[in-house]
Amino acid sequence: LEQALIHARVDKLNSIPNRRWFVENLLAELSEIERNIEAGKEDQHIGLVFGDIDKFGAFNNDLGHNAGDIVLTSVAQSLNTNKRNEDFVARYGGEEFLMTLPNMNLAGSVAAAERQRLIIAEKPYKYGPGADQERPITMSFGVVPMEQLLSQIDLKDVTDAILNKGFIKFVTSEQVEMSKTRATPLNGNGSNGNGEAQQIIQPDLVYDPDNPRKSLHDLRLLIAFEHAHALASKVIHTAKDSGRNKVCRAEWNEIDNQWEAKGQGVVQIIDMSKIEYTDLIVQGSKEEFLAMLNVG
Fold first, then answer.
1. Positive or negative, the Cα torsion across 63, 67, 69, 74?
2. Predicted confidence (pLDDT) per residue in 272-292, tens digit
3. Tell me, what DSSP letter sits at residue 48?
4. Contact 73/123 with Cβ under 8 angstroms?
5. Cβ(145)–Cβ(44) under 8 Å?
6. Where are any strands of DSSP class E within 18-159?
7. Centroid of chain to Cα 282
8. Residue 128 burial (CB count, 10 A)
9. Amino acid 185: pLDDT
């Protein structure tokens, strides 16, 4: 059972944590920050770094999917090797990677992302007869001060996310178990024989009827993460679109009450009402959480 739990939390291609493990670790980190704040400890920081491999599709399209897998593995190993012991690196999906940097402010997180970027750029992908041809591997990074965004998410945002945003998907325990049955591969490669991928529902949060307050607390933290991830995605697009920034950061403008993407010579306002969220999967009912929020 222990091996099965570990396997479910590790990316199969490169053996680093996957999204599920990343989210579990982040909830623990954010909960500790909130406990420290409640205890009167100031200067609580945690950097969220979102990394995206530049022009990754070209590796697959031009050189084959094996080349893409090699690039992903190389990047994963580099990120994982060149971090502090307390940092957490995970493959979020596709060519996207996430890092949490505990006790690191925004400036330190930007410096850490820049260091990772430079190290990765030093090792191009080599191919051809005798590996005599090279293609550069580069990444763009978006950095978000997670502790600041966390402080902005309150129970009103949780209610809005449940009722209006549409990125929280509620599932039952029966649906989760049924997905495991359907996901049994019939031909040994995760397909049902008709080329259709078999998806197992893996909830980001399971409602605990014995501790509903913790369930609500964890949902708030997850929603804060989704805001941070969506914000980091916008920041990365700023880095890529600018043509000269490979590491951009999100900064809160207290005068105008808005998030801004900043890099070398670039300042771009981020419209949070137009950002896109990744679905959160919650095992439980919408009504259980709304009852906790006193929303009918």
1. negative
2. 888 888 889 999 999 999 998
3. E
4. no
5. no
6. 46-53, 88-93, 96-102, 125-127, 133-135, 139-145
7. 17
8. 10
9. 43
Q: What is the pTM of this model?
A: 0.87
Which of 206, 196, 218 shows the shortest CA–CA distance to 176? 206
Sheet of 88-93, strands arranged across: 88-93, 96-102, 46-53, 139-145, 247-253, 258-263, 266-270
- What is the spatial distance between Cα 60 and Cα 136, in angstroms, rounded to a whole number? 14
- Structure confidence by residue, pLDDT tens digits, 46-79: 999 999 999 999 999 999 999 999 999 999 999 9
- How far apart, in whole angstroms, are the C-alpha atoms of residue 264 and residue 251? 13
pLDDT tops 70 at residue 193: no
User: Strand (E) positions, the chain?
Assistant: 46-53, 88-93, 96-102, 125-127, 133-135, 139-145, 168-171, 205-206, 247-253, 258-263, 266-270, 280-283
In the block, tokens 């039952």 appear at: 172
Residues 88, 114: Cα–Cα separation, whole Å: 16
